[in-house]
Design goal:
The protein has 333 residues and is α+β, with helices and mostly antiparallel strands. The protein folds into two domains: 223 residues, Multidrug efflux transporter AcrB transmembrane domain (Multidrug efflux transporter AcrB transmembrane fold); 90 residues, Alpha-Beta Plaits. It is built from 13 helices and nine strands. The chain has a four-stranded antiparallel β-sheet with strand order 6-7-5-8. The protein has a three-stranded antiparallel β-sheet with strand order 1-2-3. Strand 1 and strand 2 form a beta hairpin. The longest helix is centred in the last third of the chain and has 33 residues. It is elongated. 34% of the residues are buried. The C terminus is likely disordered.
Amino acid sequence: MSETTVENGKITEYMGKRVIDFMRWRKLAAAASVALVIASIAALVMNGLQFGLDFTGGTQIEVGYEQAPRIEDVRSQLQEAGYEGASVVRFGSDNEILIKLPPEVAEEQTQVSARDEEASQSIGDEVVAMLGQKAGGSVELRRVEMVGPQIGEELRDDGGLGMLFALVVVMAYVALRFQYKFSVGAVVALAHDVIIVLGFFALLKLDFDLTVLAAVLAVIGYSLNDTIVVADRIRENFRKVRKADSEEIINISISQTLGRTFMTSFTTLLVLWALQFFGGELIHNFSLALIVGVVVGTYSSVYVAANVLMMMHITKEDLMPPVKEGAELEEMP
C-alpha cells in the first residue's frame, strides 16, 4: 500500500517522497512567463535580430599571424582602413584570425579595386596586405569565402521554416503519444523558450548566425525531452493515484522528476559554461544561446507545460483508454 501523508487537505508526501506544491505559484509563474515573452517580442520588434554573415551575405577571410595579435588592434586597423562593421574573432589557434566583412563593405571595396570573378580573392589580398603592413610582420592569407545575399536570405528562410516544422511535428507526436492537451502544453512551452532566447539576442544585439540557429533547434529538443518526462509521469500518476485532484497529481509528478530534471540541467550547464569560457569566440554565441535555452527550458517544463494542463482542466477521464463498444457483452458468459 502506498504511503501518503496529507496536511491541510493536500498531499505533502507520496511513496516516501516529499511533494512540493509547485502549482501554488502557477499564477505568479504565468505572469512572469507572459512578461518575459512580451519583453522578448518587444525587443525583436524594436531591435530585430542582428543577422550574421551566414544570413546577410558578405566576405569571410581567414588569416594567420606569426605571433598572436590583439583582437582590438586588428579591429581598429580594419576600421581605420575603411572596413566598417568588420567582425574579428580567433579561429583555431591564437595566431589565426577570422574576419567577416558585411556585404556593403565588401562590395564597396571590390568596386574600388576590381570588377572581375576574383573580387573576393582581391579583397582578401588587400586586407592581408594592410594587416601585414600594420603588424610589421608576415600575415598569411589562409582562406577567402564570399556568401551572396541571395544565399543568405535562403538560409534565413529555410531556418525559420525548419523551426516551425519542428514545432508542428512535436505537437503531432505528443498528441499521438499522450493526449491533445499535452501537445498544446508542449508546444506552448517550446514557443515560450524559443521566443525568450531570440528576444535575449535581440535585446543584447548579439550576432545571430547559423551556429545560434542550431543552438535554438537544440533548445527545442532539450526542452521537449524534459517536458515529455514530466508528461509521462503525470499520465502514469493520473492512473495510479486515485484520491487526488489534478493539481495534486501534477505536484506529485513534478516532485518525482525534479531530481532527474535538476541533475540533467546542471550537468549540461557545466559543459556549456566550459564552452562559454574556454571554447573561444567562434562558439561564444552558440554556447550562450544554449545556456539561456537550458535554463528557460527547465523552467518551462515545470511551470509552462503544467500550467497549460491546469488551464485546460486536465482530468483522469482525458487519459482513460477508450472502451470498445460491446466490450461488456463480450465479457459476459
